[in-house]
Amino acid sequence: MLSQVFQKLRRQVVGIDHQVPLATGGSAQYVFLDNAASTPTLKPVLDKVQRTLEWYSSIHRGTGYKSNVATEYYEQARRKMIEFVGGDEKPHEVVFAGNTTEAINRLACCLSLPENPAILISPMEHHSNELPWRRFGEVHYLPLAAGGRIDIEAAEKMIASLADRLALVALTGASNITGQFNPIHQLAAAAHRHGARVIIDAAQLAPHCAINIEGSAPGEHLDFIAIAGHKMYAPFGGAALIGRREALADCRPACVGGGTVKLVTRDRVVWADLPGLLEAGTPNVVGAVSMAAAAELLLEVGFDAVREHEIELTRRLIEGLRSIPGLTIYGPADPAKAGERLGVVAFNLEGYPHNLTAAVLSYEYGIGVRNGCFCAHPFVVDLLRIDEADFERRAAAMLAGDRGEVPGMVRVSLGIYNTAEEVDRFLDALRRLAAEGPGVEYELDRPSGAYHPRGFSFEIERLFSTNGSGDHTAITEATGDRTTRA
Ligand SMILES: Cc1ncc(COP(=O)(O)O)c(C=O)c1O
User: Fold this and answer.
1) What separation in angstroms does the CA of 284 have from each of 96, 167, 323, 438?
2) How confident is the model at residue 482 (pLDDT cuts 50, 70, 90)?
3) What is the residue range of 458's domain?
4) What is the mean pLDDT of the segment spanning 306-310?
5) Are 64 and 17 within one domain?
6) Which of 199, 375, 379 is the best mutation target for the ligand 1 pocket, counting ligand atoms within 8 Å of the beta carbon and taking the most?
7) Are residue 296 and residue 307 in the same domain, yes or no?
8) Quick check: CB of 128 below 6 Å from ligand 1?
């Protein structure tokens, strides 16, 4: 029954059955395993966008019927995002942004923080939830216990020791590298006991798990949450900062202009109320509406079902990875504990640099993953246990324009529409690489750090030629041979 739901969902993924050309000849049906970066679009989301565009107009400012309709669906999107995180319209507010990074930066610029406050983050943060805080305070790092989890006891002591100086705890809900969950509600309770606020970077959590902004016990609430549509099947440039009104109340606008004011004279400005105060200029209505449509769809499918499906795939993935000789998984790697993490797994295959492994998966097997440092350089360097001298050597080369030896890993990340067959195809490809090596010759492009098969070129124009039908099948027709190497 459950698998039927996900089979149906899979048919709703835009571009799910594209063939891609292989450097070894022929083509293969594409397998997309880079969902932690951005997810593909779901058709109901696209349909909603198309219906919305029929009624598209500037919001809040026009007096025409279309403007009123557009204003209403934009405000409905706000309400849906509050529902998505288990909030309530009275205590919670939504500010739309372009992506998670912008949502966090906007908060960092808007919050009224004391002079040089202490800000506590985890060592596994994405740069987007670390660099903004470095600009506005003294960043301290939560301690990790053996196994890489946040050490709650030590964290609570640290929070207590920072006491009055601690303004904020900024934490990712789950690592975008190891897939590990963080105990966000426990840490929120500890932070609130000392008067600090909590922002959760939920970019990775949102497409996979129910979020509960209120927590399940007093003090466990989350003050701010940042999420992005492009990671939850709505890649139209929408993101949301959802926060408690009381925590946003003393925000100053980082950007000012149209939409942020009630009244302006030559020498006076009366600022608007929330959320307009923090949404300067014409917003990305389509981004907001599409994200809300994706949120609605995910709530309809239900996160219990999403988790069950993804845990099963994650278990299969980890079991398979562990059976490949010479493969190292970074972070937790117990398939029996797949329920304690996301389906995001980072690894390296002995004898092959991460950039070559990812290239082989792409060019020889039609499998899309990500490699590198995943915008969390310090955490990747920690996980790889790169010593200082080695790091400095590689850093000097990188800064001189040679990224050939940039440290990194390969990351595979699952979405709701992925299947056991796709996980198996990925594992078979890795097994074959481990046993036989690459099937074609690769060249390393040192400035970008990417490997490319010798003589292979993309034919993007042909891919987008619509041969009059609007159907992007030119690539399969051009390659002729539809054999799938798997
Ligand atoms: C945990 C986490 N935070 C923040 C970001 C940045 O998100 P965005 O690209 O929406 O700004 C990402 C993107 O990968 C992420 O994984």
Assistant:
1) 8, 31, 46, 44
2) very low
3) 2-32+302-479
4) 97
5) no
6) 375
7) no
8) yes
